[in-house]
Amino acid sequence: MEPEERAQLDGQLEELEAEFAVQAAEIPGAAEAGITDYESYLTWDAAHQTGLTEEEHQLGFAVYSKTNLAMVEELIEFMESYDTLAAGETPEVWGGEVGEYSPAHQPSVQRVEDVRAEGVFGFLPVAAIDSADNFFHYFAIWCVFSAVLLLSPALVRDALRRTRAMQWTSRRGRWVLNAQMGAALLSGALLTLLNCAIYLVPFLATGALRFWNCSLVSVWNAEFPWFDWTYGQYLLILLGLTFLLTLAASGFTVVLSQFSASYVAMLLKAIPLIFVLCWGVVPWIMAGAGLFSGSPVRRTGLPGTEFICGALAVLLALALCLLTIRRQRKAEL
Q1: Are 188 and 260 in contact (CB under 8 A)?
Q2: Which of 180, 199, 216, 238 would be a feasible disulfide site paired with 225, CB 3.0-4.6 Å?
Q3: Tens digits of per-residue pLDDT, 316-329?
Q4: Long-range contacts made by residues 264-272, C-beta under 8 angstroms, separation at least 24?
């Protein structure tokens, strides 16, 4: 929001307050209680903070639920935060004064200082960031979980049906594992695409894409991105992280499947794998990925830690796949 656009909010607030007065007049008992406009509501609310009677409680609930009171309060809070930023100060929603934090949090402190110096006055709602973060957090867990379930029995069938002995009778047969490992990784990626088609469509149907070009740093920020992303770029980054974690899970699963002689043995290996990935690695990486709080920073305080860890997980899975292939070639029948 440009500084010259700030004056438009005053007019918008006047319209919302006029709308509130009309809506309040339609609520039984509001006029008798002295609630005729937003200012009179504030006076009534301040006088009834404690010791509410049942009638007063119901009246307060009716005013909140049957008027645009929430919109009025949100707009006022935004205007106050905007004006605080314009004055060169730090809004309360940004977590207070950045100087309060210890040297251990210096990278995050410097990031907030840089943002404030740039004069970023975006209006992206916090709810948009929180919704995306929460959605992809659980979406990534499901993608990893479904990949493990899909690929767990993949190579166990070969051991049960003793097909490896037939494969090893020829030089070409020794290369079958290469194709199986590649097919497993590709299957994990295709499964993620299928999950995207099923779960992303309802998410995008909420109207999230209207914020595509909005800066992720806004007046509302209680959390900051380490980098100057737009909302659309942030969605793509979270989606990319989800693909990386699913590929890593696919690699780990197919390696365990290769060294399992029965479905029971694979199950005993898959359960700990699911626990480590879905209750440890994935939540740690995806929860608030690329963001840090205005309060003491989450995790290490180093920009991009989550993405480095996601890439390392994929590299580790690929390395295990390559070592398994190499071991297969050198194995005796």
Answers
A1: no
A2: 216
A3: 999 999 998 888 77
A4: 265/156, 266/152, 266/153, 266/156, 267/152, 270/148, 270/149, 270/152
Dihedrals phi, psi of 101, to nearest 5 degrees: -90, 155
DSSP string covering 65-105, please?
Answer: HHSSHHHHHHHHHHHHHHHHHHTT---GGGTS-GGGS-GGG
237: number of Cβ within 10 Å? 18
H/E segment holding residue 220 = none
Query: In a 3-state reduction of DSSP, which class is residue 293?
Result: strand
The contacts of residue 52 (CB under 8 Å, 6+ apart) are 60
| Residue range 16-54, pLDDT digits in tens | 999 999 999 999 988 988 999 999 999 998 888 777 788
Per DSSP, 206 falls in state T
How many residues make up the chain in this entry?
333
- Report the predicted TM-score, pTM, of the whole model to 2 decimal places: 0.76
- How far apart, in whole angstroms, are the C-alpha atoms of residue 37 and residue 274? 56
Determine the Cα angle at 277 with ends 272 and 279, to 5°. Answer: 90
291 bridge partner residues = 225
CB 221 within 8 A of CB 288: no
Shortest CA distance to 114 belongs to which of 190, 228, 268, 3?
228
The answer to which of 150-159, 200-209, 265-274, 307-316 has the lowest mean pLDDT is 150-159
> H or E segment at 248?
helix 231-258
d(CA 111, CA 233): 19
Contacts of 141 by beta carbon, 8 Å cutoff, 6+ apart: 278, 282, 283, 286
33, 59 Cβ separation under 8 angstroms: yes
Query: Which residue type sits at 50?
Result: T
